[in-house]
User: Which sequence fits this backbone?
């Protein structure tokens, strides 16, 4: 197997120059860098990554921690974070917490022990234990998607209040005045922000969103079905409903179809995330698209900028990106006459 000395001999430079060219620790001329890279390729030289990390005090590894692996939202985070890290010459260690705060704590502790260059993570919920860990380490950390109130921990998030506002404005513009909402878990701050944006805009526009028209879901398909069934069965009055993610919105559409309630003819439905199914199904789902790629790129850039610095790595960095409303087929003007639930009750009698 070729050694560093073999590469240096072929490139006609010293071993220290080869090391600088490979590690990027001290700049070398463009001509020298190209000669070294050609010699590395020609000889099939593979650097010892462990030794390299000890020399340059960098593992070239980032950790990404997400609440679950199967949800399309977090699949997008994984894909785009890996893409952004790879473009900067970093590899990614990925872990799922299964929405368990104890598992989240163990995995982040394990990442810290591996001396990685930075951690990007989406918190389990407000029950997360990670604050006490973050206060003990100088490893750069960025919170993505589910932010903290603390300003000394960098975060990259979508403007969730704005997402609720966009949906409400769209539905109000169609003429809806009676609304319902199936939220995500309300122990996650982004869901409270989404609900606040939706409610504030509905009320400011002369609409109603009664407490009995709000159902707390869990982001799963089944909770969308249970949520809309509960609202209909308890006599909630609404002509438009916002589910705070697309999986729940698809569950709503499924139950409404089972009950013979037309969408958007009788009830308009909107979601959030813009997953593939939202545009593949019929009717296609009006939804809010999250800027996943931009969020992940910003998070990786912040981590790499802060990695290896001698200060305490605590800065007031909060990147808030705008959501985008995508209008499709599940929203339209409200029906004339009574609410869908009332009409179905009349038909059953």
Assistant:
């Amino acid at each position: 197997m070729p050694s560093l000395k073999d590469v240096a001999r072929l490139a006609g430079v010293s071993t220290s120059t080869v090391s600088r060219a490979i590690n990027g620790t001290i700049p070398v001329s463009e001509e020298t860098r190209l000669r070294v890279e050609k010699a590395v390729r020609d000889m099939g030289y593979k650097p010892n990554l462990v030794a390299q990390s000890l020399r340059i005090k960098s593992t070239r590894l980032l950790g990404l921690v997400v609440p679950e692996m199967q949800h399309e939202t977090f699949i997008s985070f994984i894909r785009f974070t890996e893409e952004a890290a790879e473009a900067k010459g970093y590899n990614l260690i990925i872990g799922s917490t299964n929405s368990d705060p104890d598992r989240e704590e163990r995995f982040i502790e394990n990442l810290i022990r591996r001396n990685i260059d930075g951690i990007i993570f989406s918190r389990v919920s407000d029950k997360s234990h990670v604050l006490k860990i973050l206060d003990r380490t100088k490893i750069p950390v960025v919170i993505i998607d589910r932010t903290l109130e603390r300003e000394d921990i960098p975060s990259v998030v979508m403007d969730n209040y704005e997402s609720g506002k966009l949906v409400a404005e769209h539905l109000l513009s169609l003429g809806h005045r009676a609304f319902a909402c199936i939220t995500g878990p309300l122990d996650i701050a982004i869901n409270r922000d989404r609900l606040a944006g939706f409610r504030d805009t509905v009320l400011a526009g002369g609409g109603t969103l009664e407490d009995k028209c709000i159902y707390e879901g869990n982001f799963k398909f089944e909770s969308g079905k249970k949520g809309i069934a509960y609202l209909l069965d308890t006599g909630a009055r609404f002509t438009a409903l916002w589910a705070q993610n697309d999986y729940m919105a698809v569950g709503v559409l499924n139950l409404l179809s089972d009950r013979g309630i037309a969408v958007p003819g009788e009830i308009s439905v909107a979601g959030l995330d813009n997953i593939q199914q939202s545009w593949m199904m019929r009717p296609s789902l009006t939804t809010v698209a999250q800027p996943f790629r931009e969020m992940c790129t910003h998070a990786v850039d912040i981590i790499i900028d802060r990695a290896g610095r001698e200060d305490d790595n605590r800065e007031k960095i909060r990147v808030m990106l705008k959501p985008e409303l995508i209008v499709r087929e599940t929203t339209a003007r409200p029906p004339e006459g009574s609410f869908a639930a009332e009409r179905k009750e009349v038909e059953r009698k």
About this structure: The domain at 160-290+327-348 is CATH 3.40.50.2300 (Rossmann fold).
